[in-house]
Specification:
This protein has about 140 residues and is mainly α. The chain is about 65% helix and about 0% strand. It is built from 4 helices and no strands.
Length: about 140
Amino acid sequence: TAAAAALPPRSFEDMSMGDAMRRELRAKQLREQLWDEERQLLPFAPELNSAPPGARGALRVLEEPDAYVPRLREAQRRALARTALEQQRREKEALEQCTFKPKVNGGAPRFVRRLAERHRMAKESQAKGAEAAMLAAGGAQPEWR
């Protein structure tokens, strides 16, 4: 076309990077134009409400500076107590599912008790025999030289 022939020739840089830059510039201009139109249609001005009388912050550092640390400690203690109670509840809940209850015998079997009694009686009789032999020998202890 005659109009295209009248334009100055373009280099490869102008055709690649130049076109990309022009596209980006045009997109930026369109975004700004849309933003300006939106701002004109919907002006935003926040309305700040004043605090109701008697309302105060949770920290109350300015009103009660000396009570701040004790309040924090008390809140921490309550939180720890709640945590401990919850842990106990969970343990109890977990143990409720444990249904195994073993039978425990009252003591040792009868034959073991008899053996123990016989052993005790034998030791007592040996001790009595040794004591009687010592008394028969004169009751004096042997001399060791």
